[in-house]
Model the fold of this input.
Amino acid sequence: MTAFPHRHLLGIEGLSADDIRFLLDEAEQWIAFNRGRRKQDDRLAGLTQVNAFFENSTRTLFSFEIAGKRLGAQVANFHVAASSVKKGESLIDTALTLNAMRPDILVIRHEQDGAARDVAAVMDCPVINAGDGRGEHPTQALLDALTMRRRKGRIEGLKVAICGDILNSRVARSNLKLLPMLGAEVRVVGPEMLLPKDGRLDGIPAFTDFNEGIAGADVVMMLRIQRERMEEAVAGSLGDFHALYGLTWERLRHAAPDALVMHPGPMNRGVEIESSVADDPERSAITEQVENGVALRMACLDVLTRDRR
Ligand code: NCD
Done:
């Protein structure tokens, strides 16, 4: 494969295993590049990249901004707090306004499921979904796969346990699509009320007992409790989440002896993960996920804009 056969990157849904491998392979060169002293390429020179983030973000927004700048794009960030969204403008009107300014690529994060797809339908440029509600977060799943492939040498046959708030997590949703496509054995672990019942888990083993769920896992991926997407009653009835579902050294012993610990961030230390586990450089890949995220996003920006240069 020499080109990415899609106009947008809206989700893992719709991608083939070859499309995914192509993006991961393209990202590899940028990891080495980003470790060099001079981190400036010019392949996006003259192109305008708009980052429209309607939800809070630290690593995803910053990662897309740095990725675009390292490729030479003009990067403009749309700040929702200071925008006309606060004056009641609809998402589509905002999108049409941004489109009229002729961006060459749009990166969007929004609290509504399907927002990226709706916006892509009215844009004249490629759109990357940087997280839509409980929908998808494709670049996160791709950078997770890149991190696993680099640390474990493969994805096929890996036992991956995704743990915590599966129901509200777009990271889980995208990973649940991507990882089985590349041959990983995925299972989910979490309290009953945070496991989706909509068929998303068809064929995926689900565990409510943490130790049983991570038994023998090669990768333990922890997720944050997304209280902002929960009914208050559910959030209030979670009780002592750490006592039952927090990843501690004691619990990690149930996973494979060399199990890799991952977390997309932001972490709530002492809730879903014990600090010393998160900070252990041998076992935790959390900062590598962030590093690989910049490279992966450079690959996405590059391949989606090839026909505009
Ligand atoms: C995640 C997100 O926004 O979906 N964060 C991220 O992009 N790294 C996960 C989360 O918010 O818990």
